[in-house]
Fold:
Amino acid sequence: MTSFAQKRVTLTEEEQVQEAVTKEIEALVKDKNFVKKMRKKFSTVRGYIIVDIAVVQNGKLSSFFKVDSDIKDIDFIEYLSDTVLSHKFEFKLPKQQRYKIRQTINIE
Structure:
């Protein structure tokens, strides 16, 4: 898959979108910049957060809604939300397509 860097793939199946979102969000919360800032500012935060996110056609998120979490730090949840919402996924969706995905994010 060498052409992947030049052109983002278009995903049409909800399962594919769910898989891609899970993979990228897991990579995002393990990213050294995210972890470094988290350790510095939110050193005691550990746990899980379940969110509903809406992915729109350009590979961006249009919403991030907390469903459940054992993390009570509102500032951290906002930081996580901002980080995920500003992430541009490595895929796109067909025109006018939008998927709502329930995602569990584990913070270690």
Q: What stands out?
A: The chain has a mean pLDDT of 91.
